[in-house]
Design brief:
The complex is a heterodimer of chains A (294) and B (258). Chain A contains twelve helices and four strands. Chain A has 294 residues and is mostly helical. Chain A has a domain at 20-223. In chain A, strands 1-4 form a two-stranded antiparallel sheet. A two-stranded antiparallel ribbon of chain A has the order 2-3. In chain A, a hairpin with a 2-residue loop joins strand 2 (134-138) and strand 3 (141-144). In chain A, helix 6 packs across helix 7 and helix 6 (145-167) runs antiparallel to helix 9. The longest helix of chain A has 34 residues, at 2-35. Chain B has 258 residues and is an alpha/beta fold. Chain B has a single domain (27-255), classed as P-loop containing nucleotide triphosphate hydrolases (Rossmann fold, 3-Layer(aba) Sandwich). Chain B contains eleven helices and ten strands. Chain B has helices spanning 7-25, 66-74, 96-101, 119-125, 134-144, 146-150, 161-173, 191-207, 218-224, 242-247, 249-255; strands at residues 26-37, 40-51, 55-60, 83-86, 89-90, 104-107, 179-183, 210-215, 227-232, 235-240. In chain B, strands 6-7-8-3-9-10 form a six-stranded mixed sheet, sandwiched between helices. A four-stranded antiparallel sheet of chain B has the order 2-1-4-5. In chain B, a hairpin with a 2-residue loop joins strand 4 and strand 5 (89-90). Chain B starts with 6 loop residues before the first helix and ends with a helix. The chains are: A mainly alpha (294), B alpha/beta (258). The A-B interface holds A 169, 172-173, 175-176, 179-180, 182-183, 185-190, 193, 294 and B 74, 76, 95-97, 99-101, 106, 108, 112-117, 121, 124-126, 128-129, 171.
Protein backbone atom coordinates (compact mmCIF):
# COMPACT_ATOMS: atom_id res chain seq x y z
CA UNK A 1 0.00 0.00 0.00
CA UNK A 2 2.80 2.34 0.98
CA UNK A 3 4.54 1.68 -2.32
CA UNK A 4 1.40 2.61 -4.24
CA UNK A 5 0.88 5.77 -2.19
CA UNK A 6 4.43 6.96 -2.77
CA UNK A 7 4.09 6.23 -6.47
CA UNK A 8 0.80 8.11 -6.76
CA UNK A 9 2.25 11.05 -4.85
CA UNK A 10 5.18 11.21 -7.26
CA UNK A 11 2.82 10.86 -10.22
CA UNK A 12 0.61 13.74 -9.10
CA UNK A 13 3.62 15.92 -8.44
CA UNK A 14 4.95 14.96 -11.87
CA UNK A 15 1.74 15.88 -13.66
CA UNK A 16 1.71 19.21 -11.85
CA UNK A 17 5.29 19.90 -12.91
CA UNK A 18 4.47 18.68 -16.42
CA UNK A 19 1.54 21.05 -16.75
CA UNK A 20 3.85 23.94 -15.90
CA UNK A 21 6.39 22.75 -18.49
CA UNK A 22 3.51 22.46 -20.95
CA UNK A 23 2.62 26.12 -20.50
CA UNK A 24 6.25 27.17 -20.98
CA UNK A 25 6.65 24.93 -24.04
CA UNK A 26 3.46 26.28 -25.59
CA UNK A 27 4.95 29.78 -25.43
CA UNK A 28 8.20 28.59 -27.03
CA UNK A 29 6.12 27.01 -29.80
CA UNK A 30 3.99 30.13 -30.22
CA UNK A 31 7.11 32.23 -30.80
CA UNK A 32 8.69 29.65 -33.09
CA UNK A 33 5.58 29.30 -35.23
CA UNK A 34 4.75 32.98 -35.55
CA UNK A 35 8.19 34.58 -35.61
CA UNK A 36 10.48 31.67 -36.48
CA UNK A 37 12.59 32.39 -33.39
CA UNK A 38 13.71 29.85 -30.80
CA UNK A 39 13.69 32.28 -27.87
CA UNK A 40 16.36 30.79 -25.61
CA UNK A 41 16.08 33.66 -23.15
CA UNK A 42 12.34 33.32 -22.70
CA UNK A 43 12.57 31.22 -19.53
CA UNK A 44 14.92 33.77 -17.91
CA UNK A 45 12.47 36.56 -18.76
CA UNK A 46 9.76 34.45 -17.14
CA UNK A 47 11.87 34.23 -13.98
CA UNK A 48 12.30 38.02 -14.16
CA UNK A 49 8.50 38.22 -13.78
CA UNK A 50 8.84 36.06 -10.67
CA UNK A 51 11.27 38.61 -9.31
CA UNK A 52 8.87 41.45 -10.18
CA UNK A 53 6.13 39.67 -8.23
CA UNK A 54 8.49 39.06 -5.31
CA UNK A 55 9.54 42.73 -5.32
CA UNK A 56 5.94 43.96 -5.28
CA UNK A 57 4.95 41.43 -2.62
CA UNK A 58 7.77 42.71 -0.40
CA UNK A 59 6.92 46.34 -1.07
CA UNK A 60 3.18 45.95 -0.43
CA UNK A 61 3.40 43.74 2.64
CA UNK A 62 2.43 40.59 0.73
CA UNK A 63 -0.57 41.91 -1.16
CA UNK A 64 -1.21 38.83 -3.30
CA UNK A 65 -3.41 40.52 -5.88
CA UNK A 66 -0.83 43.22 -6.55
CA UNK A 67 1.92 40.57 -6.66
CA UNK A 68 0.10 38.47 -9.22
CA UNK A 69 -0.77 41.57 -11.21
CA UNK A 70 2.90 42.64 -11.16
CA UNK A 71 4.01 39.29 -12.61
CA UNK A 72 1.45 39.36 -15.41
CA UNK A 73 2.04 43.02 -16.25
CA UNK A 74 5.83 42.74 -16.16
CA UNK A 75 5.72 39.61 -18.34
CA UNK A 76 3.55 41.31 -20.95
CA UNK A 77 5.59 44.52 -20.93
CA UNK A 78 8.93 42.65 -21.15
CA UNK A 79 7.53 40.64 -24.09
CA UNK A 80 6.24 43.70 -25.94
CA UNK A 81 9.33 45.80 -25.27
CA UNK A 82 11.83 43.14 -26.36
CA UNK A 83 9.85 42.25 -29.51
CA UNK A 84 11.05 45.22 -31.64
CA UNK A 85 14.66 44.09 -31.07
CA UNK A 86 13.79 40.89 -32.94
CA UNK A 87 11.76 42.45 -35.76
CA UNK A 88 14.63 43.18 -38.20
CA UNK A 89 15.85 39.59 -37.76
CA UNK A 90 12.35 38.18 -38.21
CA UNK A 91 12.04 40.13 -41.49
CA UNK A 92 15.43 38.94 -42.72
CA UNK A 93 14.72 35.44 -41.38
CA UNK A 94 18.10 35.64 -39.66
CA UNK A 95 17.40 32.79 -37.28
CA UNK A 96 20.94 32.39 -35.89
CA UNK A 97 21.35 36.08 -35.05
CA UNK A 98 17.93 36.05 -33.37
CA UNK A 99 19.01 33.00 -31.37
CA UNK A 100 22.09 34.83 -30.09
CA UNK A 101 20.02 37.92 -29.24
CA UNK A 102 17.46 35.87 -27.34
CA UNK A 103 20.27 34.16 -25.44
CA UNK A 104 21.79 37.59 -24.68
CA UNK A 105 18.47 38.86 -23.31
CA UNK A 106 18.26 35.80 -21.05
CA UNK A 107 21.83 36.25 -19.78
CA UNK A 108 21.35 39.98 -19.16
CA UNK A 109 18.11 39.41 -17.25
CA UNK A 110 19.69 36.60 -15.20
CA UNK A 111 22.55 38.94 -14.27
CA UNK A 112 20.14 41.72 -13.34
CA UNK A 113 18.30 39.32 -11.06
CA UNK A 114 21.43 38.05 -9.36
CA UNK A 115 22.97 41.52 -8.86
CA UNK A 116 20.05 43.79 -8.09
CA UNK A 117 17.69 41.61 -6.11
CA UNK A 118 18.10 40.01 -2.68
CA UNK A 119 21.94 40.14 -2.80
CA UNK A 120 21.93 37.36 -5.36
CA UNK A 121 20.32 34.92 -2.94
CA UNK A 122 17.30 32.86 -3.96
CA UNK A 123 14.03 34.64 -3.27
CA UNK A 124 11.31 33.16 -1.08
CA UNK A 125 7.60 33.70 -1.57
CA UNK A 126 5.20 34.16 1.35
CA UNK A 127 3.33 31.05 2.55
CA UNK A 128 0.04 32.79 1.77
CA UNK A 129 0.90 32.64 -1.95
CA UNK A 130 1.78 28.95 -1.72
CA UNK A 131 -1.60 28.18 -0.10
CA UNK A 132 -0.18 25.87 2.55
CA UNK A 133 -3.56 24.38 3.51
CA UNK A 134 -4.11 20.70 2.75
CA UNK A 135 -6.48 20.04 -0.10
CA UNK A 136 -6.32 16.28 -0.39
CA UNK A 137 -5.02 13.77 2.12
CA UNK A 138 -4.87 10.05 1.27
CA UNK A 139 -2.65 8.01 3.55
CA UNK A 140 0.85 9.36 3.07
CA UNK A 141 -0.19 11.59 0.23
CA UNK A 142 -0.74 15.20 1.14
CA UNK A 143 -1.51 17.55 -1.69
CA UNK A 144 -1.31 21.22 -0.82
CA UNK A 145 -3.97 23.63 -2.02
CA UNK A 146 -1.28 25.58 -3.90
CA UNK A 147 -0.20 22.46 -5.79
CA UNK A 148 -3.76 21.69 -6.77
CA UNK A 149 -4.31 25.27 -7.96
CA UNK A 150 -1.06 25.09 -9.94
CA UNK A 151 -2.12 21.87 -11.62
CA UNK A 152 -5.55 23.14 -12.63
CA UNK A 153 -4.34 26.62 -13.54
CA UNK A 154 -1.72 25.08 -15.82
CA UNK A 155 -4.34 22.95 -17.55
CA UNK A 156 -6.76 25.90 -17.82
CA UNK A 157 -4.07 28.15 -19.35
CA UNK A 158 -3.24 25.51 -21.96
CA UNK A 159 -6.89 25.02 -22.94
CA UNK A 160 -7.62 28.75 -22.90
CA UNK A 161 -4.64 29.29 -25.19
CA UNK A 162 -5.76 26.54 -27.59
CA UNK A 163 -9.28 28.01 -27.59
CA UNK A 164 -7.87 31.45 -28.34
CA UNK A 165 -5.73 30.09 -31.16
CA UNK A 166 -8.50 28.08 -32.82
CA UNK A 167 -11.70 30.00 -32.15
CA UNK A 168 -10.91 33.71 -32.17
CA UNK A 169 -10.11 36.13 -34.97
CA UNK A 170 -6.74 37.09 -33.43
CA UNK A 171 -5.88 33.43 -32.98
CA UNK A 172 -6.62 32.71 -36.63
CA UNK A 173 -4.44 35.66 -37.61
CA UNK A 174 -1.57 34.22 -35.55
CA UNK A 175 -2.01 30.84 -37.21
CA UNK A 176 -2.14 32.43 -40.65
CA UNK A 177 1.22 34.15 -40.06
CA UNK A 178 2.61 30.89 -38.67
CA UNK A 179 1.56 28.95 -41.76
CA UNK A 180 2.44 31.37 -44.53
CA UNK A 181 3.79 34.86 -43.92
CA UNK A 182 3.31 35.94 -47.54
CA UNK A 183 -0.34 34.89 -47.67
CA UNK A 184 -0.95 36.52 -44.29
CA UNK A 185 0.39 39.81 -45.67
CA UNK A 186 -1.83 39.54 -48.73
CA UNK A 187 -4.83 39.11 -46.44
CA UNK A 188 -3.94 42.42 -44.79
CA UNK A 189 -2.37 41.02 -41.63
CA UNK A 190 0.59 43.04 -40.40
CA UNK A 191 3.36 40.53 -39.77
CA UNK A 192 5.28 42.93 -37.49
CA UNK A 193 2.25 43.71 -35.34
CA UNK A 194 1.42 40.01 -35.11
CA UNK A 195 4.99 39.26 -34.03
CA UNK A 196 4.87 41.94 -31.32
CA UNK A 197 1.47 40.63 -30.23
CA UNK A 198 2.77 37.08 -29.95
CA UNK A 199 5.76 38.26 -27.86
CA UNK A 200 3.40 40.15 -25.57
CA UNK A 201 1.08 37.14 -25.35
CA UNK A 202 3.98 34.80 -24.59
CA UNK A 203 5.06 37.35 -21.94
CA UNK A 204 1.57 37.44 -20.43
CA UNK A 205 1.39 33.66 -20.22
CA UNK A 206 4.97 33.72 -18.87
CA UNK A 207 3.86 36.10 -16.10
CA UNK A 208 1.02 33.79 -15.14
CA UNK A 209 3.38 30.81 -15.19
CA UNK A 210 5.84 32.71 -13.00
CA UNK A 211 3.14 32.99 -10.35
CA UNK A 212 2.35 29.27 -10.69
CA UNK A 213 6.04 28.40 -10.23
CA UNK A 214 6.16 30.63 -7.18
CA UNK A 215 3.06 28.90 -5.80
CA UNK A 216 4.38 25.47 -6.54
CA UNK A 217 7.99 25.76 -5.33
CA UNK A 218 7.85 28.74 -2.99
CA UNK A 219 11.26 29.92 -4.13
CA UNK A 220 12.98 31.29 -7.17
CA UNK A 221 16.51 32.09 -8.28
CA UNK A 222 18.25 33.60 -11.26
CA UNK A 223 19.45 30.19 -12.47
CA UNK A 224 15.90 28.78 -12.57
CA UNK A 225 15.61 30.20 -16.09
CA UNK A 226 18.55 28.12 -17.34
CA UNK A 227 17.19 24.83 -16.07
CA UNK A 228 13.74 25.71 -17.35
CA UNK A 229 14.97 26.51 -20.85
CA UNK A 230 16.96 23.25 -20.93
CA UNK A 231 13.78 21.34 -20.08
CA UNK A 232 11.79 23.27 -22.68
CA UNK A 233 14.44 22.48 -25.32
CA UNK A 234 14.26 18.78 -24.49
CA UNK A 235 10.47 18.79 -24.86
CA UNK A 236 10.59 20.83 -28.08
CA UNK A 237 12.99 18.44 -29.78
CA UNK A 238 11.32 15.37 -28.37
CA UNK A 239 7.92 16.35 -29.71
CA UNK A 240 9.20 18.07 -32.86
CA UNK A 241 9.50 21.82 -32.93
CA UNK A 242 6.27 23.68 -33.59
CA UNK A 243 3.95 20.82 -32.70
CA UNK A 244 1.59 22.12 -30.02
CA UNK A 245 -0.16 18.89 -29.08
CA UNK A 246 3.04 16.85 -29.14
CA UNK A 247 4.64 19.52 -26.94
CA UNK A 248 1.87 19.17 -24.36
CA UNK A 249 2.13 15.40 -24.20
CA UNK A 250 5.94 15.39 -23.99
CA UNK A 251 5.90 18.13 -21.33
CA UNK A 252 3.64 16.04 -19.10
CA UNK A 253 5.81 12.96 -19.74
CA UNK A 254 8.96 14.91 -18.82
CA UNK A 255 7.32 16.21 -15.64
CA UNK A 256 6.33 12.69 -14.58
CA UNK A 257 9.73 11.20 -15.48
CA UNK A 258 11.48 13.96 -13.57
CA UNK A 259 9.28 13.44 -10.53
CA UNK A 260 9.68 9.65 -10.57
CA UNK A 261 13.44 9.95 -11.06
CA UNK A 262 13.65 12.29 -8.09
CA UNK A 263 11.59 9.89 -6.02
CA UNK A 264 13.37 6.67 -6.90
CA UNK A 265 16.87 7.50 -8.13
CA UNK A 266 19.69 8.91 -6.04
CA UNK A 267 20.51 12.42 -7.30
CA UNK A 268 18.77 14.36 -10.05
CA UNK A 269 19.16 12.45 -13.31
CA UNK A 270 16.24 14.05 -15.13
CA UNK A 271 18.20 16.15 -17.59
CA UNK A 272 20.54 13.29 -18.41
CA UNK A 273 17.58 10.95 -18.98
CA UNK A 274 15.60 13.51 -20.99
CA UNK A 275 18.50 14.42 -23.26
CA UNK A 276 19.56 10.80 -23.75
CA UNK A 277 16.05 10.18 -25.05
CA UNK A 278 16.32 13.34 -27.22
CA UNK A 279 19.57 12.07 -28.75
CA UNK A 280 18.07 8.66 -29.48
CA UNK A 281 14.91 10.20 -30.96
CA UNK A 282 16.89 12.65 -33.12
CA UNK A 283 19.07 9.81 -34.40
CA UNK A 284 16.22 7.51 -35.34
CA UNK A 285 13.32 9.90 -35.92
CA UNK A 286 14.86 13.29 -36.77
CA UNK A 287 11.47 14.96 -37.20
CA UNK A 288 10.69 14.26 -33.52
CA UNK A 289 8.09 11.95 -32.01
CA UNK A 290 5.14 13.83 -33.43
CA UNK A 291 6.57 14.84 -36.81
CA UNK A 292 5.96 18.13 -38.60
CA UNK A 293 2.47 19.41 -38.00
CA UNK A 294 0.93 22.83 -37.36
CA UNK B 1 -23.67 66.72 -74.74
CA UNK B 2 -25.27 70.17 -74.76
CA UNK B 3 -25.54 71.57 -71.28
CA UNK B 4 -26.42 75.22 -71.92
CA UNK B 5 -26.84 77.79 -74.69
CA UNK B 6 -23.52 79.63 -74.37
CA UNK B 7 -20.98 77.86 -76.66
CA UNK B 8 -17.82 78.76 -74.63
CA UNK B 9 -19.37 77.76 -71.33
CA UNK B 10 -20.79 74.65 -72.92
CA UNK B 11 -17.32 73.51 -73.93
CA UNK B 12 -16.04 74.19 -70.43
CA UNK B 13 -18.87 72.30 -68.75
CA UNK B 14 -18.48 69.35 -71.11
CA UNK B 15 -14.79 69.10 -70.27
CA UNK B 16 -15.58 69.37 -66.57
CA UNK B 17 -18.22 66.65 -66.91
CA UNK B 18 -15.74 64.35 -68.63
CA UNK B 19 -13.07 64.84 -65.95
CA UNK B 20 -15.70 64.40 -63.23
CA UNK B 21 -16.93 61.14 -64.72
CA UNK B 22 -13.36 59.91 -65.10
CA UNK B 23 -12.68 60.64 -61.45
CA UNK B 24 -15.90 59.08 -60.26
CA UNK B 25 -15.80 56.00 -62.47
CA UNK B 26 -12.12 55.30 -62.08
CA UNK B 27 -11.40 52.65 -59.48
CA UNK B 28 -7.66 52.31 -60.01
CA UNK B 29 -5.20 54.66 -61.61
CA UNK B 30 -1.55 53.71 -61.67
CA UNK B 31 0.92 56.16 -63.10
CA UNK B 32 4.60 55.70 -63.93
CA UNK B 33 5.19 52.83 -61.54
CA UNK B 34 8.58 51.11 -61.68
CA UNK B 35 9.57 48.22 -59.44
CA UNK B 36 13.06 46.79 -59.03
CA UNK B 37 14.11 43.47 -57.53
CA UNK B 38 17.63 44.42 -56.55
CA UNK B 39 19.09 45.69 -59.82
CA UNK B 40 16.62 43.90 -62.03
CA UNK B 41 13.74 46.00 -63.27
CA UNK B 42 10.47 44.06 -63.00
CA UNK B 43 8.17 46.78 -64.37
CA UNK B 44 9.15 50.08 -65.96
CA UNK B 45 6.98 53.25 -65.96
CA UNK B 46 3.74 51.32 -66.01
CA UNK B 47 0.61 53.44 -66.36
CA UNK B 48 -2.74 51.71 -66.28
CA UNK B 49 -6.28 52.21 -65.10
CA UNK B 50 -9.42 50.29 -64.23
CA UNK B 51 -12.92 51.72 -64.30
CA UNK B 52 -15.86 50.65 -62.23
CA UNK B 53 -17.28 47.26 -63.20
CA UNK B 54 -14.56 46.51 -65.77
CA UNK B 55 -12.51 43.41 -66.30
CA UNK B 56 -8.99 44.63 -66.95
CA UNK B 57 -6.80 41.95 -68.44
CA UNK B 58 -3.04 41.87 -68.05
CA UNK B 59 -1.50 39.46 -70.52
CA UNK B 60 2.06 38.52 -71.28
CA UNK B 61 4.58 35.75 -70.87
CA UNK B 62 5.86 34.43 -67.57
CA UNK B 63 8.03 37.10 -65.90
CA UNK B 64 6.64 39.95 -68.00
CA UNK B 65 5.66 41.86 -64.85
CA UNK B 66 1.95 41.09 -64.48
CA UNK B 67 2.17 39.85 -60.90
CA UNK B 68 4.51 42.68 -59.98
CA UNK B 69 1.84 45.20 -61.03
CA UNK B 70 -0.60 43.58 -58.60
CA UNK B 71 1.98 43.41 -55.83
CA UNK B 72 2.76 47.09 -56.38
CA UNK B 73 -0.95 47.97 -56.06
CA UNK B 74 -1.10 46.02 -52.80
CA UNK B 75 2.05 47.73 -51.48
CA UNK B 76 4.00 44.48 -51.21
CA UNK B 77 6.45 45.78 -53.80
CA UNK B 78 7.25 49.48 -53.55
CA UNK B 79 7.81 51.88 -56.40
CA UNK B 80 10.16 54.83 -56.01
CA UNK B 81 8.45 56.77 -58.76
CA UNK B 82 4.90 57.57 -59.76
CA UNK B 83 1.67 57.17 -57.88
CA UNK B 84 -1.23 54.78 -57.39
CA UNK B 85 -4.74 56.17 -56.86
CA UNK B 86 -7.59 53.99 -55.64
CA UNK B 87 -11.12 55.44 -55.67
CA UNK B 88 -9.56 58.91 -55.95
CA UNK B 89 -7.30 58.32 -52.93
CA UNK B 90 -3.51 58.15 -53.05
CA UNK B 91 -2.42 54.72 -51.77
CA UNK B 92 1.18 54.84 -53.01
CA UNK B 93 2.75 55.01 -49.55
CA UNK B 94 0.05 53.22 -47.57
CA UNK B 95 0.74 49.94 -45.74
CA UNK B 96 -0.54 46.69 -47.25
CA UNK B 97 -2.80 46.36 -44.22
CA UNK B 98 -4.49 49.72 -44.92
CA UNK B 99 -4.67 49.05 -48.65
CA UNK B 100 -6.49 45.76 -48.06
CA UNK B 101 -8.75 47.48 -45.52
CA UNK B 102 -9.59 50.16 -48.12
CA UNK B 103 -11.09 47.53 -50.43
CA UNK B 104 -8.44 45.89 -52.64
CA UNK B 105 -7.98 42.13 -52.51
CA UNK B 106 -5.38 39.99 -54.21
CA UNK B 107 -5.72 36.31 -55.08
CA UNK B 108 -2.18 35.09 -55.71
CA UNK B 109 -1.10 32.44 -58.18
CA UNK B 110 -2.38 29.07 -56.98
CA UNK B 111 -4.88 30.78 -54.68
CA UNK B 112 -2.71 31.02 -51.58
CA UNK B 113 -5.15 29.10 -49.39
CA UNK B 114 -3.82 28.09 -45.98
CA UNK B 115 -3.66 24.28 -46.16
CA UNK B 116 -3.75 23.54 -42.42
CA UNK B 117 -6.90 25.56 -41.88
CA UNK B 118 -10.47 24.60 -42.70
CA UNK B 119 -12.37 26.17 -45.59
CA UNK B 120 -14.43 28.15 -43.08
CA UNK B 121 -11.33 29.47 -41.32
CA UNK B 122 -9.80 30.47 -44.64
CA UNK B 123 -12.96 32.38 -45.52
CA UNK B 124 -13.08 34.05 -42.11
CA UNK B 125 -9.52 35.26 -42.61
CA UNK B 126 -10.69 37.12 -45.71
CA UNK B 127 -12.90 39.29 -43.53
CA UNK B 128 -10.45 40.51 -40.91
CA UNK B 129 -10.94 44.11 -42.07
CA UNK B 130 -14.66 43.74 -42.80
CA UNK B 131 -16.82 45.86 -40.53
CA UNK B 132 -20.31 44.62 -41.53
CA UNK B 133 -22.30 41.47 -40.82
CA UNK B 134 -19.94 38.52 -41.16
CA UNK B 135 -22.69 35.87 -41.28
CA UNK B 136 -24.46 37.65 -44.09
CA UNK B 137 -21.19 37.85 -46.02
CA UNK B 138 -20.45 34.18 -45.41
CA UNK B 139 -23.96 33.28 -46.57
CA UNK B 140 -23.43 35.15 -49.84
CA UNK B 141 -20.12 33.41 -50.52
CA UNK B 142 -21.72 30.03 -49.79
CA UNK B 143 -24.59 30.90 -52.17
CA UNK B 144 -22.03 31.57 -54.87
CA UNK B 145 -20.02 28.43 -54.07
CA UNK B 146 -22.39 25.87 -52.49
CA UNK B 147 -19.70 23.19 -52.50
CA UNK B 148 -17.70 25.22 -49.96
CA UNK B 149 -20.68 25.25 -47.60
CA UNK B 150 -20.98 21.47 -47.75
CA UNK B 151 -17.31 21.01 -46.94
CA UNK B 152 -16.62 24.01 -44.75
CA UNK B 153 -15.01 22.01 -41.94
CA UNK B 154 -12.62 20.22 -44.28
CA UNK B 155 -8.94 21.23 -44.29
CA UNK B 156 -8.17 23.40 -47.32
CA UNK B 157 -5.03 21.37 -48.00
CA UNK B 158 -7.16 18.37 -49.00
CA UNK B 159 -8.91 20.23 -51.85
CA UNK B 160 -8.26 19.98 -55.58
CA UNK B 161 -6.76 22.88 -57.55
CA UNK B 162 -10.12 24.17 -58.79
CA UNK B 163 -11.68 23.97 -55.34
CA UNK B 164 -8.73 25.81 -53.85
CA UNK B 165 -9.24 28.56 -56.42
CA UNK B 166 -12.90 28.77 -55.30
CA UNK B 167 -11.83 29.09 -51.66
CA UNK B 168 -9.33 31.79 -52.64
CA UNK B 169 -11.91 33.78 -54.64
CA UNK B 170 -14.52 33.25 -51.93
CA UNK B 171 -12.05 34.45 -49.32
CA UNK B 172 -11.33 37.54 -51.40
CA UNK B 173 -15.05 38.35 -51.62
CA UNK B 174 -15.52 38.07 -47.85
CA UNK B 175 -14.46 41.67 -47.28
CA UNK B 176 -16.88 43.10 -49.92
CA UNK B 177 -13.98 44.56 -51.91
CA UNK B 178 -14.08 47.24 -54.62
CA UNK B 179 -11.24 45.80 -56.66
CA UNK B 180 -10.40 42.10 -57.00
CA UNK B 181 -6.99 41.22 -58.44
CA UNK B 182 -6.72 37.66 -59.72
CA UNK B 183 -3.23 36.41 -60.50
CA UNK B 184 -3.24 33.54 -63.01
CA UNK B 185 -6.44 31.96 -61.67
CA UNK B 186 -6.49 29.27 -64.36
CA UNK B 187 -2.86 28.18 -64.03
CA UNK B 188 -2.42 24.42 -63.71
CA UNK B 189 -6.14 23.65 -63.89
CA UNK B 190 -7.87 21.15 -66.17
CA UNK B 191 -9.53 22.73 -69.28
CA UNK B 192 -13.03 22.15 -67.94
CA UNK B 193 -12.19 23.81 -64.64
CA UNK B 194 -10.54 26.72 -66.53
CA UNK B 195 -13.88 27.46 -68.25
CA UNK B 196 -15.57 27.27 -64.87
CA UNK B 197 -13.10 29.76 -63.39
CA UNK B 198 -13.70 32.17 -66.31
CA UNK B 199 -17.46 31.81 -65.78
CA UNK B 200 -16.96 32.74 -62.13
CA UNK B 201 -14.96 35.79 -63.26
CA UNK B 202 -17.74 36.92 -65.63
CA UNK B 203 -20.26 36.36 -62.88
CA UNK B 204 -18.21 38.52 -60.53
CA UNK B 205 -18.27 41.30 -63.11
CA UNK B 206 -22.04 41.03 -63.42
CA UNK B 207 -22.34 41.42 -59.64
CA UNK B 208 -20.50 44.74 -60.01
CA UNK B 209 -16.94 43.93 -58.99
CA UNK B 210 -14.03 45.58 -60.76
CA UNK B 211 -11.46 42.97 -61.69
CA UNK B 212 -7.79 43.05 -62.54
CA UNK B 213 -7.01 39.75 -64.20
CA UNK B 214 -3.51 38.53 -64.98
CA UNK B 215 -3.39 35.58 -67.36
CA UNK B 216 -1.20 33.65 -69.73
CA UNK B 217 -4.35 32.36 -71.38
CA UNK B 218 -4.47 35.40 -73.70
CA UNK B 219 -7.40 34.46 -75.89
CA UNK B 220 -9.87 33.75 -73.11
CA UNK B 221 -8.75 36.84 -71.22
CA UNK B 222 -8.96 39.24 -74.17
CA UNK B 223 -12.40 37.93 -75.12
CA UNK B 224 -13.70 38.90 -71.71
CA UNK B 225 -11.69 42.08 -71.00
CA UNK B 226 -13.14 45.55 -71.30
CA UNK B 227 -9.63 46.90 -71.21
CA UNK B 228 -6.38 45.03 -71.59
CA UNK B 229 -2.66 45.61 -71.32
CA UNK B 230 -0.04 43.50 -73.06
CA UNK B 231 3.18 43.20 -71.04
CA UNK B 232 6.64 42.37 -72.32
CA UNK B 233 9.69 42.29 -70.06
CA UNK B 234 8.32 44.91 -67.69
CA UNK B 235 6.88 47.31 -70.28
CA UNK B 236 3.37 47.80 -71.54
CA UNK B 237 3.64 46.95 -75.22
CA UNK B 238 0.02 47.57 -76.20
CA UNK B 239 -3.19 48.51 -74.54
CA UNK B 240 -6.80 48.99 -75.50
CA UNK B 241 -10.14 47.28 -75.68
CA UNK B 242 -9.88 43.49 -75.26
CA UNK B 243 -11.64 42.68 -78.50
CA UNK B 244 -9.56 45.21 -80.46
CA UNK B 245 -6.39 43.66 -79.14
CA UNK B 246 -7.70 40.24 -80.08
CA UNK B 247 -7.78 41.40 -83.71
CA UNK B 248 -4.36 43.05 -83.51
CA UNK B 249 -1.94 41.12 -85.78
CA UNK B 250 1.02 41.58 -83.39
CA UNK B 251 -0.96 40.16 -80.49
CA UNK B 252 -2.24 37.33 -82.65
CA UNK B 253 1.26 36.39 -83.71
CA UNK B 254 2.86 36.67 -80.29
CA UNK B 255 0.16 35.30 -77.98
CA UNK B 256 -2.50 33.56 -79.98
CA UNK B 257 -0.29 31.36 -82.12
CA UNK B 258 -0.67 33.42 -85.32
Amino acid sequence: MLVVEVFVAQLVSGIKLGSLYAVVVICYNLLILVTGILHLGYASLLVLSMYAAWFVLNATDNNLILGIFAAILSGTVIGAVTAPIFLPFIRRRAVLEALVISLALGIISADIMSHWFNLGLPIAFPPSLQMEGTAIRWGLIIIRMGELVTLFAGIIIVFAFLYFLNKTKRGRMLRAVAQDTEVARILGISVSKTAIFSFALAGLIGGLTAILFAMSTGTGSSILGDSLSIKALAVLFLASIGNLKGGLICAIILGVVESLAMGYLPGDWTNAIAFSVVVVILLFKPEGLFGEQH
Amino acid sequence: MRLCGEPGLNLYLTAFWRVFMQRVGKVLHMENISVFYGRICAIRNVTLEAHEGEIVGLIGANGAGKSTVMKAVLGIQRSHTGSIQFMGRDITRMSTESIVASGIVYVPEGGGVLPFMTILENLQLGAIHFKGDLHERLKRVFERFPILDERKHQLAGTLSGGERQMVAIGRALMSAPKLVMLDEPSLGLAPKIVSEVFNIILDLQKTGYTLLLSEQNAKKTLQRSDRAYVFQTGDILLHGNGKELLDNPDVQQAYLGG
